[in-house]
Amino acid sequence: MEPKRVVITGMGIISSVGNDLDTYWKNLVDGVCGIDYVEDFKDMPVTIAGKVKDFDPERYDMDKAFVRKQDKFTQFAMAAAWQAMEASGLKTEGEEMNIDPFRLGVYVGSGIGGFEIQYRETAKMVEDPTGKWVSPLFIPTMISNIAAGHIAIKHQAKGPCLDIVTACATSSHCLGEAFRAVRHGYADAIIAGGSEHASIPIGVAGFANAKALSRATDPKYASLPFNANRQGFVMGDGAAVLILESLDHALARGAKIYGEMVGYGNTCDAYHATAPRPDGSTQARAIQLALEEAGFDPEKDNLYINAHGTGTHLNDIAETIAYKVALGDYAYKAHISSIKSMTGHMFGAAGAAEAIATILALRDGIIPPTINLDCPDPECDLDYTPNVAVKSDITIGISDSLGFGGHDACVAFRKYSE
Hints:
The chain has helices at residues 21-30, 64-69, 72-88, 115-127, 138-142, 146-155, 170-183, 201-209, 247-252, 281-294, 313-327, 340-343, 350-364; strands spanning 6-14, 36-37, 48-49, 104-109, 161-162, 189-196, 238-246, 259-268, 303-306, 335-337, 366-367, 390-391, 396-403, 407-414. By secondary structure, the protein is an alpha/beta fold. The protein folds into two domains: 6-259, Peroxisomal Thiolase, Chain A, domain 1 (3-Layer(aba) Sandwich); 263-414, Thiolase/Chalcone synthase (Peroxisomal Thiolase, Chain A, domain 1, 3-Layer(aba) Sandwich), CATH 3.40.47. Strands 5-4-6-7-1-8-14-13-9-10 form a ten-stranded mixed sheet, sandwiched between helices. A two-stranded antiparallel ribbon has the order 2-3. A two-stranded antiparallel ribbon has the order 11-12. Helix 7 (170-183) packs across helix 13 and helix 10 (281-294) packs across helix 11. It starts with 5 loop residues before the first strand and ends with a strand.
């Protein structure tokens, strides 16, 4: 079977800088920081995070009874998926049905799953070891695959349904594996992305005690990718979902097309549980695989890279090295930025949120900035788009993600053209 072209026909976002596509993109381009103080963290060594604001689940067609029973990570995922499906116009039922439900899949993952539910119910068990007060809904609200399950139920997606868990690379891998499933004919469309709600006190305690988090006291100058002043990453919450659909299926139903997914790379550092491979070789290979499949031509293409860019000392240097290994001298020509400077690190949702930013950058010819890059690390000497957005007629965009355990992923996109 001839591989199919795969296009994006819907996108949805819940984040610290916006709960809809237009707000999210405008704030990224304008350099708006969504990180702020968190009252629940006031007695902790880290007091800031990129929390979701003004979230109303009923706006995204969730009823009160459902919301009451679900962890926030599921609610965020449902909201982002609802937005994406509404934008796509896909229907699995009724007179408007335009896709076979057995040909619609869901690949939505989470790095941790129902973290808040886990903490709450574990506390009950510690207080009363008989376990009689533990909720009967504990397991089906905590497991990380439940968001994908509920999305499938909501939209009657009866095709393949997977929850990939690769820490901070989760949703990039969900997109990549969904891309392959559609490309090779296993589905006509897949609802793909990730969701996370990890910025709760126990999450902050764990990451802070691992010396991974920034302890900056100014939330607007805390997430500092590629900055010599960086102290670590800032936690962020949210969800991002994209509809990946075969081009022929999208054209047959007259769908709006946001962009085309053209490549995917997937490797493992095989080096350390939390630190990236310092020579950048495995991260570079994931980038090369995605660009090779995308038909990248350094003589003709104008490349944008949405960096993993966490703001940790080891990540930013290793990532810079990886770009140089993957691209050679072209690395100095590429436009690069990290939106984590504004959103914080959305963990399992980060890759999909950054893929959305990459697609919109291609659409509009605008590179979102890395804000607060006022003191570049000399070891991070590439064009990281400091402080303000830049206009550029980019022709190809990639987003790369690195996760604890050494998981590397890279996804590639182009503007859609016939």
